[in-house]
Design goal:
This protein is globular. Helices cover 49% and strands 11% of the residues. The chain starts with a helix and ends in a 5-residue tail after the last helix. A four-stranded mixed sheet has the order 1-4-5-8, covered by helices on one side. Strands 2-3-7-6 form a four-stranded antiparallel sheet, with no helix packed on it. Strand 4 and strand 5 form a beta hairpin. By secondary structure, the protein is of the alpha+beta class. Helix 7 runs antiparallel to helix 8 and helix 9 packs across helix 11.
C-alpha cells in the first residue's frame, strides 16, 4: 500500500477502538477511506491488492475470536450487527472488494464454528501472514464437484477471487449425497482456472471465473466440519444475510449519487425530488431489515429453522428494495445511469450482476410456508434494551 493509502488508513479509529466498538461515523469514515483508495477510472490488473487497505486496518481477522487475536464479530448479537455494518461500509465503497471480503470473513466464521481446535489455530496463524480465504460453493450442474476416494473432481462456477485468494473453502458432494467442505491450499492442491468462463458484466474485480478440479487429493486435515455442516441452519441463512449487507452498502452508495445528482441540477423539480425520496425510503428500509435481523440468531429459544425463515423474509425485503431503487435511479439519473465510466453505472451493473444468485420466488415460498407453520411471528415486538445502540 502506498504512503497516501497508509496515511488515510491511519486516520481511522482502529488505533483507539476495535470494530466491535465502532460507531456510525467510524463505518462512514471507512467507506470514505476505501473510496478514496480506489481509482474508479482504472481497472487494476491486481484487484486483490485493494484488500491491502483492509489488511492494514486489521479488519481481515474481524470474525476471528478474540482468544485467537481477532475482534469476534458475528459471534453475538452486538458483534453481528457490527459485522453487517462493516460489510455494508465496504460494499458502499466497492462491491467487488466487499464480495471478496464477505466470503473471506464467512469462511473464517465457518472454520471457527465447525473446524477443530488445531484447524482454527492454523487459520489464525495464516491470517497473521496475510492469507486470504474464500468460498467456492456454486457447482456446474453438468459437472458438479464431488469427492471419491479422497479426490475432488468437477467444476465450480463464479469462483470469486480465483487465482488471487490464498485458501478457498470448496464444497463437494460425497457418494452418499452429503455436502462436505474442504480447504484447498495451493501449495498442495492444484486446480485449473478458466478466465473465459463464468465472467460477470459487473463486480469484475471480484474475478469470478470457473475452476476445474481433476482428482485433487485431500485428507482429513483439509476437511472442515461433519457432512452437511455447510447447510446447517441458521449459519447458511446468516451467510446470505451478510451478502445482503454488502448489497445494502452498494444501495447506499447509489442513494448518495442520486441525492447529489438532484441537488446539483434538479433540486427544483418535484418529480426528481419524489424519485429521490423513493430511493431513500428503500435504502432506509434495507438497513432497518439488516438491523432487525442481526440479533435473531442469538435470541433464546429460537431454533435454526425459525431463524432461517426470518432471514428469508429479511433478505427478500432487502432485495426488493434494491430492485425498486435501481429502477427508480435509472429514471432519476437518465443517461448517466448507463454512461460508460460513470460511478452510478458501475454500481448499478455491480448490483445487477450480483443479483441472479438470489432465488426470489423460492425465498418467498419459504416465507409463506413458514408463516403458515407458525415459524414466523407477525410484527415482533423487540425490547428497547435489545435494540438500543451503544452511546458515542
Amino acid at each position: 500500500m502506498n504512503a497516501s493509502c497508509q496515511a488515510r488508513a491511519a486516520s481511522l479509529p482502529t488505533n483507539r477502538r476495535t470494530p466491535r466498538e465502532w460507531q456510525s461515523h467510524d463505518f462512514e469514515r471507512l467507506a470514505a477511506t476505501l473510496t478514496a483508495a480506489k481509482d474508479r477510472g482504472r481497472r487494476t490488473t491486481e484487484p486483490i491488492d485493494l484488500l491491502s487497505t483492509l489488511k492494514a486496518l486489521g479488519l481481515m481477522n474481524s470474525t476471528l475470536a478474540s482468544e485467537y487475536g481477532g475482534h469476534g464479530l458475528g459471534t453475538d448479537a452486538a458483534g453481528n450487527q457490527h459485522l453487517l455494518w462493516l460489510l455494508a461500509a465496504v460494499g458502499e465503497a466497492d462491491l467487488s472488494l466487499a464480495c471478496l471480503f464477505e466470503q473471506h470473513l464467512s469462511a473464517v466464521l465457518f472454520l471457527q464454528k465447525y473446524g477443530t481446535v488445531a484447524q482454527v489455530r492454523t487459520v489464525s496463524e495464516e491470517l497473521k501472514l496475510g492469507k486470504v480465504f474464500g468460498v467456492w460453493d456454486t457447482d456446474d450442474e453438468e459437472n458438479p464437484v464431488h469427492i471419491c476416494e479422497s479426490r475432488l473432481s468437477g467444476r465450480k462456477l463464479f469462483a470469486a477471487g480465483a487465482g488471487r485468494i490464498t485458501i478457498p473453502l470448496v464444497t463437494a458432494r460425497d457418494p452418499n449425497g452429503a455436502t462436505r467442505a474442504f480447504l484447498l491450499r495451493s501449495n498442495r492442491i492444484s486446480y485449473w482456472i478458466n478466465p473465459q468462463h463464468s465472467r460477470l458484466v459487473g463486480i469484475r474485480d471480484a474475478i469470478s471465473h470457473s475452476v476445474v478440479l481433476a482428482h485433487a487429493m485431500v485428507d482429513r486435515n483439509d476437511e472442515v466440519g461433519p457432512p452437511d455442516s455447510w447447510l446447517f441452519q441458521p449459519q447458511a441463512a446468516e451467510r446470505l444475510l451478510r451478502r445482503c449487507a454488502v448489497r445494502a452498502g452498494g444501495l447506499r452508495a447509489l442513494s448518495v449519487l442520486a441525492r447529489n445528482h438532484v441537488k446539483q441540477g434538479a433540486a427544483g423539480d418535484p418529480l426528481q425530488r419524489h424519485r429521490l425520496a423513493e430511493i431513500l425510503l428503500d435504502t432506509e428500509g434495507a438497513f432497518a431489515w439488516l438491523e432487525r435481523a442481526s440479533a435473531v440468531s442469538f435470541r433464546q429459544n429460537t431454533n435454526g429453522d425459525d431463524v432461517a425463515a426470518f432471514m428469508e423474509m429479511a433478505r427478500s425485503a432487502i432485495e426488493r428494495a434494491i430492485e425498486r431503487a435501481i429502477h427508480t435511479a435509472q429514471h432519476l439519473l437518465g443517461t448517466v445511469a448507463s454512461l460508460s465510466g460513470s460511478p452510478a453505472a458501475e454500481i448499478i451493473l455491480d448490483l445487477v450482476a450480483d443479483g441472479p444468485f438470489f432465488h426470489a420466488d423460492q425465498a418467498l415460498d419459504n416465507v409463506g410456508t413458514a408463516a403458515i407453520a407458525g415459524k414466523i411471528t407477525i410484527g415482533t415486538f423487540i425490547d428497547a434494551a435489545e435494540a438500543a445502540a451503544p452511546s458515542a
